[in-house]
Amino acid sequence: MACATNRTLTTGLGIEMNDILIVGIATVDAIGRPLDEFPRPGGLRFFEHLTISTGGCAINCSIALAKLGVPCDVVARVGTDILGDFVAAELARHGVPTDGIVRDSSTSTAFTFVAVGSSGERSFFHTTGADARICRADVPPDRLRGCKLVFVTGAMVMDSLDGEPTAELLADARAAGATTLLDTVYVETAPAAEWHRRIVPTLPYVDYFVPSRAEACALSGLEDLSAIARDFQARGAANVVIKLGERGAFCRDTQSRERLMPAFQVEPVVDATGAGDCWSAGFLVGLREGLPLEQAALLGNAVAAHGIQAPGATAGVKPLAVIRAFMQANRPRSPGSACDPGGAWQSQREKR
Fold first, then answer.
1. How far is it, in rounded angstroms, from Cα 17 to Cα 23?
2. Complete domains list, the chain, with CATH
3. Which of 109, 153, 182, 339 gives 78 a disulfide partner, CB atoms 3.0 to 4.6 angstroms apart?
4. CA 347 – CA 250 distance, rounded (Å)
5. Is 272 left (phi over 0), alpha (psi -120 to 50) or beta?
6. Is residue 299 pLDDT above 90, yes or no?
7. How many CA atoms lie within 13 A of 71 on its CB side?
8. From CA 274, how far away is CA 111, in angstroms rounded?
9. CA quadruple 35, 332, 285, 187: dihedral positive or negative?
10. Residue 97 predicted with pLDDT over 80
């Protein structure tokens, strides 16, 4: 189970380690908003605001944790270019250790241009760069020793780690006493066979599988939230949480209990970039504090609600005490506001 204390461990290499380890992708994001239409070939469109920030699931989540006041370690791979320097500098600025950042001279740091529409929804143009080269060897045994939570995030774009290597990493993490989590990236063009090759082998070693709805549908080939979660559990995942954006999070635990945890309604919604990673940070904190699955998911919803109120992936995240005060002062949306089949799922069960 997750630990509620600020625990560090000194490895044989003399490195102090925290009890949350995040392994995954690192990018630099250039975020343009508002962008509701793309130009025709050879054309030009103007937008009003440009934000340059770190991105990638692992970097976003680790910085969000730091802003919440919860220490963690991160393993990711970047180039030896100026973008890699920027990632390392931003981590250091937020107090996140950088000894797990592997500098790779053979490729560039991953880069994403994010087009944010007036509604806050995003479209992405991405070059994978060093993210494709992060590998099992980047996480030596000393990195897992003493960890309570090991979160692999960014599956589907980590070519050298996805699939069996991630399964081995998660199995090793469990053997070392950690609770394991996995999140994915929505690769719109990936065929079903590729989703299965990269994700299905890992599920027997995942304690909490936390994809978005789009990712969950792409992997399962299903639409109904309950059916999707049951499918993942049949493939080996213990607990399943499906992130639903503005509608909250659908949870199914090891006892087959299902619940829809609603999102918090906030204004203005400025930028949803990194919202899922902010959610993951809150969820990790909840698990670390020993909260039940549903309450950890609700804490994730509250952190995500802050993240979307500022441009960039993590700029809106506040200290944990502020998040908790917000949760006490604000009711989340009604569960019935979830989209079908989630809303239908909830309303059917309320009638029983």
1. 14
2. 16-22+57-77+140-343 (3.40.1190.20)
3. 109
4. 14
5. alpha
6. yes
7. 15
8. 14
9. negative
10. yes
Among candidates 328, 335, 338, 212, which has minimal Cα distance to 279? 212
> What confidence tens digit (pLDDT) does each residue in 3-23 have?
333 333 334 444 456 899 999
Q: To 10 degrees, what angle do helices 293-307 and 57-68 make? A: 100
- Residue 225 · residue 212 · CB < 8 Å: no
- Work out the number of other CB atoms within 10 angstroms of the CB of residue 210: 28
* 153-202 confidence digits (pLDDT tens): 999 999 999 999 999 999 999 999 999 999 999 998 999 999 999 999 99
By the 10 Å C-beta count (0-12 exposed, 13-18 middle, 19+ buried), 182 is classed as: buried
CA 336 to chain centre: 25
